[in-house]
Amino acid sequence: MKDNKFLFGFVAFVIGCFSLTGLYVAVKGKGLGADSAAAVAPASSVELTRQFEDGQDIAFLDGEAAGITMATVAGGECALDYFGQGGATSATQLTPRVPLKISGWAATRGGATAKRVWIEWKPTSGGSSRGGFIQLNAGLAREDVVSAKGASSYLRSGYDRFGVVVGVPAGSYQLYLVLDTGTELLQCDINREVTVN
């Protein structure tokens, strides 16, 4: 009889251990001591969340408000695919309170993904504005750039933004991309000059 009680007790103990393990997995979503797939997946395979929603107003910021904490140096690779209002793909005259669509790709040294991307608006000579920055959605998938460059490091080189730019003083500006590598800020010329009416 004592042997049966011991056997029943041992079985109950084993079942309890398995139940606790199952409860931990259900709550935590992973086995004991195992990393989840999301935690160890390479950054290039994770779908990044857009920081800014389409249609949200785009703030025109000075360097401090934009988080530009150091001087920029020339570098990086970049292209501006679309910059326009009302269906125009290559705007040079911007009308206030009309949504602006921006898209393209940019990469830091060796095709690496930038941590953050801004467009810098530099006043042309004779302009009275101090200029400023607008931040873009960065890290977007661009498989076409991977194909063109022949390197997977360009996968998350895409950027975009869509909305009304608010706070830009009237005047003419030369546009540049600013790429945050984590250790430096690279300035890449996208060869675009615009006038804000």
Topology readout:
Layout: H1 2-28, H2 37-40, E1 58-59, H3 63-66, E2 72-74, E3 77-85, E4 93-94, E5 100-107, E6 116-123, E7 132-140, H4 143-149, E8 158-163, E9 165-166, E10 171-180, E11 185-196
What does this structure look like?
With 197 residues, the chain is an alpha/beta fold. It is 21% helix and 36% strand. It is built from 4 helices and 11 strands; from the N terminus they run ααβαββββββαββββ. Strands 2, 3, 4, 5, 6, 7, 8, 10 and 11 form a 9-stranded mixed sheet that branches. It has a two-stranded parallel sheet with strand order 1-9. Strand 6 (116-123) and strand 7 (132-140) form a beta hairpin.
Helix-residue proportion: 10-25%
Report the CATH C-level class of the largest domain: Mainly Beta
Share of β-strand residues: 35-45%
In CATH terms, what is the fold-level topology of the largest domain?
Immunoglobulin-like
CATH architecture of the largest domain: Sandwich
SS content category: alpha/beta
Computed Rg: 26 Å
CA(first)-CA(last) distance: 96 Å
Query: How many domain regions?
Result: 2
Main sheet makeup: 9 strands, mixed
Arithmetic mean pLDDT: 79
- Got a strand count? 11
Low-confidence stretches: 17-47
Shape field: globular
Number of helices: 4
Taken in chain order, the helices and strands follow as HHEHEEEEEEHEEEE
